């Protein structure tokens, strides 16, 4: 771009004295020609940036976080570098998670400078990955974790236990019979519960469930603007899970996220798009790039939004509703402008939300 500007500047330095001769006129014409070519070169460069993420026929530009989501889906570097919007939508809607660790690696900030040597020393203390994450979320650098003695670590981790007792959500009644065809997940990570049942269409492989939990954690941190895990619940009612609110006759269409310390936490928008429905409690926003509608429920004190209004990532869309004590978020395929139910029967109608919940944040 700098070179182009220099060429343009040189070409613009016209010698008006040369206008009096035929040879001078030829020189002027040449210079005008160079100016036109230079301007054309400038305009062929700028739209190449402008059309990223909107032109289906053009490769799209992704940041490191978005590339890691693609890597988690198993795409090669070549596929990522030549990604089209059509391919992106296909991956997000039909892809299978193969390597959730790409997301795990980037979520805890303390792992950014975790060398192999430090990792070995930390592991030698007998800490689980979750405990190491918790210490990192509390602000401890890897070197500090190495220097802490075991008693000190135990003391610090006491505060990271997620306090289930503060929840108003009941658990599934143990006497209920799981629906036929549903899959059982023996242990959902991060206090997501034991023997949890999921709709037959939900991939319950270890890689997939790990990704669901990591993506929900990532989204919860952003939505509630808090990185302390002890303040967040994010794996207790996932997409396609049976038994939310002790209701055993339908499955959950979305993901429940909770801010634990208080019910009046502001909720930030984790995507961008146009409002298609808003009533102070529900909000639907359509993302024209991924072609999906994001739905939020149980909000209160929602700002007045008008249908068609464009909302940017990070917009405050309301506050966690004290009566419900969690925010329900789900994703529906296409442009939806009406109420989306969080669950009505044992059929799973909304699409897998996880990668979409975190793609823009
Ligand atoms: Zn819910």
| Total number of beta strands | 12
CATH topology of the largest domain: Glucose Permease (Domain IIA)
What fraction of residues sit in β-strands?
A: 15-25%
State the end-to-end CA separation.
30 Å
Helical stretch tally: 12
Structural class: alpha+beta
What is the total number of structural domains?
Answer: 4
Task: Give the ordered list of helices and strands.
Answer: HHHHHHHHHHEEHEEEEEEEEEEH
Q: Can you tell me the CATH superfamily of the largest domain? A: Glucose Permease (Domain IIA)
What Rg do the Cα atoms give?
26 Å
Mean pLDDT: 80
What is the CATH architecture annotation of the largest domain?
Distorted Sandwich
Helix content bin: 25-40%
Can you describe this structure?
With 361 residues, the protein is α+β, with helices and mostly antiparallel strands. It folds into four domains: 2-50; 64-94, no CATH class; 101-158, no CATH class; 166-358, Distorted Sandwich (Glucose Permease (Domain IIA)). It is 35% helix and 15% strand. The chain has helices at residues 2-12, 22-50, 64-72, 77-81, 85-94, 101-106, 116-123, 129-137, 142-147, 150-158, 206-223, 354-358; strands spanning 183-188, 193-198, 232-233, 255-259, 266-268, 273-278, 283-287, 292-297, 299-300, 310-311, 316-320, 327-333. It has a seven-stranded antiparallel beta sheet with strand order 3-4-12-8-7-6-10, covered by helices on one side. It has a three-stranded antiparallel beta sheet with strand order 5-11-9, with no helix packed on it. The longest helix has 29 residues, at 22-50. It is globular. Bound molecules: zinc ion. Residues 237, 244, 252, 254, 256, 328, 342 line the site of zinc ion.
